[in-house]
Write the structure tokens for this entry.
Amino acid sequence: MSDATAARAVTLGDVAARAGVSISTASKALNDRGDVSAATRAKVRAIADELSFTPNAMARGLLAGRTGTVGLLTSDLEGRFMLPILMGAEDAFGAGRINVFLCDARGDAIREQHHLKELLSRRVDGIIVVGRQTDPRPSLGQELPVPVVYAYAPSDDPRDLSLTPDNYAGGRLAIEHLLACGRRRIAHVSGDPAYAAAQDRLAGARAALGEAGLELVGEPMFSEWTEHWGRDAAAMLLQRHPDIDAVFCGSDQIARGVLDSARDLGRTVPDDLAVIGYDNWEVLATNARPELTSIDANLQQLGRQAALRVFDAIDGIDIGEGAHHLPVRLVIRGSTIARR
Amino acid sequence: MSDATAARAVTLGDVAARAGVSISTASKALNDRGDVSAATRAKVRAIADELSFTPNAMARGLLAGRTGTVGLLTSDLEGRFMLPILMGAEDAFGAGRINVFLCDARGDAIREQHHLKELLSRRVDGIIVVGRQTDPRPSLGQELPVPVVYAYAPSDDPRDLSLTPDNYAGGRLAIEHLLACGRRRIAHVSGDPAYAAAQDRLAGARAALGEAGLELVGEPMFSEWTEHWGRDAAAMLLQRHPDIDAVFCGSDQIARGVLDSARDLGRTVPDDLAVIGYDNWEVLATNARPELTSIDANLQQLGRQAALRVFDAIDGIDIGEGAHHLPVRLVIRGSTIARR
DNA sequence: GAAATCTACGAAAACCCTTTCGAAAAGGTA
DNA sequence: TACCTTTTCGAAAGGGTTTTCGTAGATTTC
């Protein structure tokens, strides 16, 4: 960028002057509006191309009242869950010629307020708030001049619209799959029990077991969402309850640890022991031995949905309120069913 | 968002009227500019707060010529490398009251052009282009009205400024560490040989070995950047060259696979065999058995640098040109040195 | 008391675009 | 020729803010 001439950008006026027409005619020619002769239109278009004229979105937005931008307020970019949501949203917006303002609050409420102000000052047409856990988070309030949709982490105010993955259903789905595979003695190893996700998944699992007249083998084991813990937990578990035939893990990382320990202890997966993970983190799941069956939260879909809701709200459509739990999906791989 | 009144946002005029002063006085009062009495200033401020007035950034940008926004044009959000870069950039910008337009081109040139046009239409003050590989990518051209900095993937035009991690130095660093650990019979397992990163790391490794009067054991093994390949490669390697005492892996995933196979084949890491990875992907590296020594490309720092360069360019400072290789960092863990 | 100096404020231009409405030109009809 | 219709274009307003410059009033100086 040595010679980036900071020359004034070419304006509609420049195009009009060069084409020998008025500014209004030029505008109409470029926007297919009003009555302009075909010849004039072609001429203006040609000149605009030649000067590589790009209309000033700000000037346009000033008039229209709409900016064609949406704010994406994340609390923690780092998280693995943020990305697919972000992609889904960006995807949906990209199709509609909307641009995304990205703000990362780093989990800090003050930074969040600061970013919120920035977004409002830029007159975004809507805001998506993406949390890093499925635990409820403080609402931005009801007084905002733009529609807000909460994704992943629901708002703690039921008047807000929140989209969040259905962890309860995920827990059920995992257990139902294990039961369908003929497993009966199922244990649960999960992460931090303070996470709503951990509790919801467990609740779903217990419900599914209950309907089959079964219970978890032993107490559910909670600690961290890491492979390390998965290994340690599995070692303890297999010693205490050598007769288990399946483990439902709260995350793929934990499941990887469980797989490792099981292998070390001479258990064969899936024949001897079925293992199911959660999150369907592809890199981890597909490189496990055997490949890991998992629950996918459809996060990209969730991001898409959030974006579409914001679209609707912008168009004046009522998008409703409350926390909506989006369906999750079972991805079957070799850790629960032997390959034929 | 049930009651998001689409009421017209409060303008400076509203504040001025309510305060009983002119628009210009109100503006000056809020911006600490011009001559305004302390009393008037306080009054205007109070009213602005009360009405929760937020200046319209578009109207402001229209005048100033600067928008306080920067475009982040990524070619592939999905990639693991994008995130830290994005975070670093967002961080640097956040501090300077600049907002980030995020655009994901999905690796598609047409989408990229489309997004570029959008960004220019929004009159961003600068653009950061983030690629997904360290291979050179097509330049956006020299004719753009705003400064551009290429991060991770350098531009193929030497007149552009590119910041990219120094893979050659990374290769050297890895080998030098292994040599310092007393290893002499070192093999190399890497990913897709079509990646510049793979070739650069290998070249650096060979240079370091050469200086010590050594050579790689066997041919470098290329295939995929996966654990699967790491396992397969290690199995072959240890059969063909049972006497190797270290493996330099092209990625942490490959290294994880190598660790797995080594363990299966009864080799002890690090006593018997040292393993070093690349990328320092924390989740993988710290959960390996033993924890994985790796090379960290300082991507967050790279993103920061890119942002700062754009800042400078906006301020009219010449930011230079050419591809700059940013230093990488060795992170020592248990896979190369036994814990005391 | 007049002149000079400050101080505090307001009017208006500028930024770039879209849109409305009126006017001019061109063509057709009686 | 006088009148009407259709087509094509331009003048001007409007959007919200910043900034420049002028002015009215207050204060000081001789």
Notes: The mean pLDDT of chain B is 93. The first strand of chain B starts at residue 69 and ends at 74.
